[in-house]
Amino acid sequence: MSRERTVPTSRWLPAHAIVVFGFLYLPIVTLIVYSFNGSGVGGFPPRDLTLNWYRLLFADDAIWTSVLNSLLVALAAMAISLSFGIPAALALDRANFPGKALFRRLVLLPLILPGIITGLSLLMLFREADVKLSLLTIVLGHGTALISVATTEVFAGLQKLDRAQEEASLDLGANYWQTFWRVTLPNLRLSIIGAALLIFTLSMDEIAVSFFLIGRDNTLPLEIWGRLRRGITPEINAISTIIFIFSLAAIVTWYRLRAGSEAQTDAGF
Amino acid sequence: MGRTLLSVALDFDLMFSRAYRAAITLPPLLWVAVFLLVPYLILFCYSFWSVSASQEIVHSWTQDNYRQLLQVNVYWHTLLRSMWIAARVMIFSLLLGYPLAYYLSFHARKKELLYQLVIIPLWVSYLVRAYAWKTILGSDGVLNTLLQYVHLTRHPLDFLLYSPFAVVLTLTHIYTPFTFLPIYAALEHIPRNLVEASHDLGASPFQTFWRVIFPLSIPGVLAGATFAFVLSLGDFLAPLLLGGPSGIMISNIVVSLFGAAYNWPLGAAISFCMLALVLALLFLSESLEKKWSFR
User: Fold this and answer.
1) Which residues in chain B have their CB less than 8 angstroms from residue A94's CB?
2) Which of B7, B8, B17, B36 to mutate to test the interface with A (most CBs of A within 10 A)?
């Protein structure tokens, strides 16, 4: 069946797509190219190919400390968002309680709310409660804001879940706790891994909330931010290039994982 | 409080026991109450407090902050400018995102791959992409030196960086994928037999688009537009990095009130107005979405 005749088409559509992709990738390509540019950021054409910025970067302790901080924050935030987001999704799916509609909106709000509002309101909470700002306050901020991600991902997974399995488990004498660990959770595996990866990356990159909750220790985005205010340096290009490559690796792994598991379920049925 | 919650929770779903439902409901409920609901309430309270001459927060009720917001022009003008910037970002993201989504959904051969190509830039840090634009647009940046290299200009164009233009460009770059995603999802959900039916009943491709495809994609357009508008309205990093004095946005004022200017209550009042504005927009887009969805 030729779709071309039923819906409008034009030579301009692929041209437009190319322009949009160019627009989306121009900064990324620039970033990577100039991380190898001997004469610094800017200046056309790029010249003096060098690995010097990477050498500087690897000797830069402040950056690596902040990378470590960011990793810790992201892992801790992931733990919080998942341990409250999974039950939240279950609750929205299978419990009824007063204020459920408000709860749903409240949980999802940080997804759409500008980070500055979430960051500031938590800052005021911590000040009123006399909590000193540190990496821990950033963890609480990220963990809370990203419950929204865990909840949406897991809720979507629950919609596809076949309840008959849980029912069978209960009928066969397993208690709720056993059913949860042995049936519900394994069935939600993919949604949970997806949510975890997403939370991890979002937390690694988060800056608007961290901006207000930062104590003495910097996360990577805040370390980068501090340096950008002082001037631009190709070291930033170098670290960004490395992160980009890691992210790409994570995406590819995730799709392999999902494709593999989908093939498995297909074979199982 | 827990007990009343439990008693109402009864009878919803006989498959799960009361205790099970309490166990999945109470922990997230408590966490969300402490770390989301209470902070928003504190934000609201702060907006009615004030700062004393000795830089202490005075915890007594006053409407001065809101009065000041109404009377001082700079707040209004900055808010309006921010909304104008956000509106332009929204329009440009739609102009870039919609045709792309339509092309991918209805025409492209390798749509899975192309879809991934739209997502990948989201994995590059927001901050780093904004910074990359700075290195492109600066007076000795990539673009200006390129233009001079090919002898198109003799002097660097200085309107490129430190202007609202730079902010709009960067935010459009950042929110185009966010706008694309819901539109693409909406287009993918359109049953293709509707399109065939429209064709069989004699509609031209153009009519099919305007009468069938476009109306069915409106919920996606609304979601994408809301995303782009709301998130760029509250942005403060792109203006700080690329905006210059003429690109200052409302959140930058809030940041300075919470920093050097040290007037948290006034900053809280502005934030609360932003929160109210955002909630109103969400409500509006949700009710429009309901009106346009066919279920």
Assistant:
1) 12-13, 15-16, 21, 24
2) B36
List the domain range (segments joined by +) for residue B158: 69-292
Disruptive mutation site among B107, B109, B210, B263 for chain A (greatest number of A CBs within 10 Å)? B107
**Number of domains present in the structure of chain B:** 1
Q: Give the CATH number, domain containing residue B204.
A: 1.10.3720.10
Cα dist from A31 to A258, B21, B132, B238, B239, whole Å: 30, 50, 6, 17, 20
DSSP A63-123: HHHHHHHHHHHHHHHHHHHHHHHHHHHHHHHH---TTHHHHHHHHHHHHHS-HHHHHHHHH
Say which DSSP state A35 is in: T
**Distant-in-sequence, close-in-space partners of A159: CB < 8 Å, separation ≥ 6:** A93
Q: Can you tell me the ipTM of this complex?
A: 0.87
Q: Is B21 inside any structural domain?
A: no
| pLDDT tens-digit series, residues B104-143 | 999 888 888 899 889 888 878 888 899 889 888 887 777 8
Tally of domains in chain A: 1
For tokens 């003008």, what's the residue? B77
